[in-house]
């Protein structure tokens, strides 16, 4: 495995290891820098690419992971200290078996549009004005603050008032799930909410959920099913005059197969 920091097409910092490795950088990231991680094989990893974002246990399909360091508007969905400062610690190791137990399989604070290798990965057919604070990745970053909008920690998936909006969550492998928890944005009276939404699973099944005006979790349980992905669509807005419903967080609980 190896971690590299790429700047102007050249590798400026790097570290390699078999089962675990770390990289300490005494330098500020420059606009255009890219964090690159190359795994040895597909499997489960516990990693930390930023001290503020912390550790996560994720699945890699074996392809290289490349994350352009966010600057300017692309940084707005993060805490001010994320990827900033003149000291950085990046660390990866192969996950222990017990880290792959029952947990929120949707959590990935390192997700981004460019992600094609570290799962879960969220994507959507619409994101409000293309702004990072309304990107699909915000729905799986682990932050559940709901009573604001437009900046961290209230980053959300914003649908730009589009009734055809759809969010897809790709697990990258088969998982067994039996519980979904939804946090809708609750910056009332600016926000509206959805009365109903439909989860469509990769096994062909669907789950229609009734939602309510609430600042907090809304939990839905079902018989255990094996899936590789799910989508949330057919979102029916409430009759509230506000045109702005949004999703703060999607949690999906289960086990790796």
UniProtKB/TrEMBL annotation:
<dbReference type="Pfam" id="PF24135">
    <property type="entry name" value="DUF7402"/>
</dbReference>
<feature type="domain" description="DUF7402">
    <location>
        <begin position="135"/>
        <end position="232"/>
    </location>
</feature>
<protein>
    <submittedName>
        <fullName>Carbohydrate-binding protein</fullName>
    </submittedName>
</protein>
<dbReference type="InterPro" id="IPR055826">
    <property type="entry name" value="DUF7402"/>
</dbReference>
């Amino acid at each position: 495995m190896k971690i590299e920091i790429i700047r102007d097409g050249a590798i400026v910092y790097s570290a390699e290891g078999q089962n675990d490795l770390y990289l300490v950088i005494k330098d500020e990231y420059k606009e255009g820098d890219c964090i690159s991680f190359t795994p040895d094989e597909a499997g489960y990893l516990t990693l930390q690419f930023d001290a503020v974002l912390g550790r996560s246990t994720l699945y890699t399909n074996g392809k290289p992971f490349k994350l352009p360091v966010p600057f300017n508007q692309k940084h707005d969905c993060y805490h001010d200290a994320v990827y900033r400062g003149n000291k950085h610690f990046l660390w990866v190791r192969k996950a222990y078996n017990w880290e792959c137990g029952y947990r929120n399989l949707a959590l990935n604070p390192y997700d981004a549009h460019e992600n094609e290798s570290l799962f879960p990965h969220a994507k959507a057919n619409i994101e409000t004005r293309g702004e990072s604070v309304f990107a699909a990745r915000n729905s799986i970053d682990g932050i559940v603050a709901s009573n604001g909008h437009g900046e961290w920690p209230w980053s959300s998936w914003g649908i730009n008032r589009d009734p055809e909006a759809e969010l897809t969550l790709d697990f990258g492998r088969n998982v067994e799930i039996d519980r979904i928890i939804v946090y809708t944005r609750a910056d009332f009276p600016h926000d509206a909410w959805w009365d109903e939404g439909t989860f469509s699973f990769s096994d062909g099944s669907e789950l229609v959920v009734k939602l309510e005006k609430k600042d907090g979790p809304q939990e839905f349980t079902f018989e255990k099913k094996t899936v590789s992905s799910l989508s949330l669509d057919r979102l029916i807005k409430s009759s509230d005059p506000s045109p702005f419903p949004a999703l703060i967080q999607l949690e999906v609980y289960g086990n790796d197969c």
